[in-house]
Design a protein that fits this description.
Serine Threonine Protein Phosphatase 5, Tetratricopeptide repeat, single chain, elongated, 0% strand, mainly alpha
């Protein structure tokens, strides 16, 4: 540690240090304040965005309950465009897809769900994929449904594996591939997945076909 004999030496040392480090110290202090202010602004902005998106989402729910299709479409589009980084943007699209299914617009619902399925939010992406496969099942696109499920990354869908296994069973059942359907249903059960209809589906696969009683015509 450097020792100074006089106050003049101490003063000169302080002046020398300030000359060498003063500017960087001021800049560092300014940057520190700027970072704090920037963080606070970003946090408040994010909170404000979420609150505004939530309010619009509430309006969307009301529009759907009132069966106001045009209003619901506009609100969902507005949430997606103005608040794309909030989860409400995805929630609104899932809700809009459900509305379109209720109106018989399966093509429109599939288009929306396909977009949501590409989301980086793994949970909502899987929910969209599951709903999309159900629509494919309903519209007879069995092979496409199987292809979609086969493309799902197991690492990002572990908590949905039972849902997918049951859907695979449904698709195989629709294709009359009974053994594969049964195997998929059993796999879902063994994974711990619980569905109120799963055991019924398995029982239906193993139930013997009812004998067809021929009709006879009687005449006078």
């Amino acid at each position: 540690m450097e020792i100074y004999e006089t106050e003049e030496q101490q003063l000169e040392a302080i002046k020398r240090w300030w000359k060498e480090n003063g500017q960087s110290t001021i800049i560092g202090a300014i940057l520190g304040v700027a970072i704090i202010l920037g963080w606070n602004y970003w946090r408040e902005h994010k909170k404000s965005q979420a609150e505004q998106a939530s309010a619009l989402y509430g309006e969307l729910v009301q529009a759907i309950e009132a069966n106001k299709k045009e209003g619901a479409d506009k609100l969902a589009e507005r949430i997606k465009n103005e608040y794309p980084k909030t989860e409400y943007a995805i929630y609104s699209q899932l809700l809009l897809a459900k509305l379109k299914v209720g109106q018989g617009d399966l093509a429109g619902a599939k288009s929306i769900l396909t977009n949501v399925a590409a989301s980086s939010n793994n949970e909502l992406s899987n929910i969209a994929k599951i709903r999309l496969v159900r629509l494919m099942l309903a519209s007879g696109e069995y092979e496409k449904g199987l292809e979609l499920i086969n493309s799902v990354d197991p690492a990002t869908s572990a908590s949905f594996s039972g849902n997918y296994d049951e859907l695979v069973g449904d698709l195989y059942g629709a294709l009359d591939r009974v053994e594969q359907a049964r195997s998929s249903y059993q796999k879902a059960i063994e994974s711990g997945y619980r569905s109120p209809l799963l055991q019924i589906k398995i029982d239906d696969l193993t139930a013997p076909e009812k004998a067809v009683v021929p009709t006879t015509e009687t005449g006078k």
